[in-house]
Design goal:
The chain has no helices and 11 strands. It is mainly beta. The protein starts with a strand and ends with a strand.
C-alpha cells in the first residue's frame, strides 16, 4: 500500500525558512516523479514543485521560483521541499504526491498524480 507522510510544517514569520519532508513507502520510489502541491483556505489546490524520477529535472510554480527548492533521496525514499524567504501568501496545507506510472514526465497537472499525503500546515505570519 502506497503511503506518503509529510512533516516539517509549522508557524514561521515572513522571511523565514522551512524544510518539508515527505517519506514514501509501499512503492518503488525511484521510478516515480514526485510533486508538492498546496491549498490555501478558500482556494484551489495548486502545484508548487516537481522532480523527475532521476532528480535530473525540476519544475516550479512561478510564485515560488527562486525561493523554493525540491530534491529527493531515492535511497531514503524521501522528497524534500526547502522553502526560503517565506511570504504570507505561502500559508497553506502542503501535500506530497506521486505521479501515475513509472518513469513518467514531469508535470504540474494534478491529474498526473494519483497518491497524496495527508498534508502538513505551513503558516507564515507577517
Amino acid at each position: 500500500q502506497v503511503r506518503l507522510v509529510e512533516s516539517g510544517g509549522g508557524l514561521v514569520q515572513a522571511g523565514d525558512s522551512l524544510r518539508l519532508s515527505c517519506a514514501a513507502s509501499g512503492l518503488t520510489f525511484s521510478k516515480y516523479v514526485m510533486g508538492w502541491f498546496r491549498q490555501a483556505p478558500g482556494k484551489e489546490r495548486e502545484f508548487v514543485a516537481g522532480i523527475s524520477w532521476s532528480a535530473g529535472r525540476t519544475l516550479y510554480a512561478d510564485s515560488v521560483k527562486g525561493r523554493f527548492s525540491i530534491s529527493r533521496d531515492n535511497a531514503k525514499n524521501t522528497v524534500i521541499l526547502q522553502m526560503n524567504s517565506l511570504k504570507r501568501e505561502d500559508t497553506a496545507v502542503y501535500y506530497c504526491a506521486r505521479s501515475r506510472g513509472w518513469y513518467g514526465s514531469l508535470s504540474s497537472g494534478q491529474e498526473e498524480y494519483d497518491y497524496w499525503g495527508q498534508g502538513t500546515q505551513v503558516t507564515v505570519s507577517s
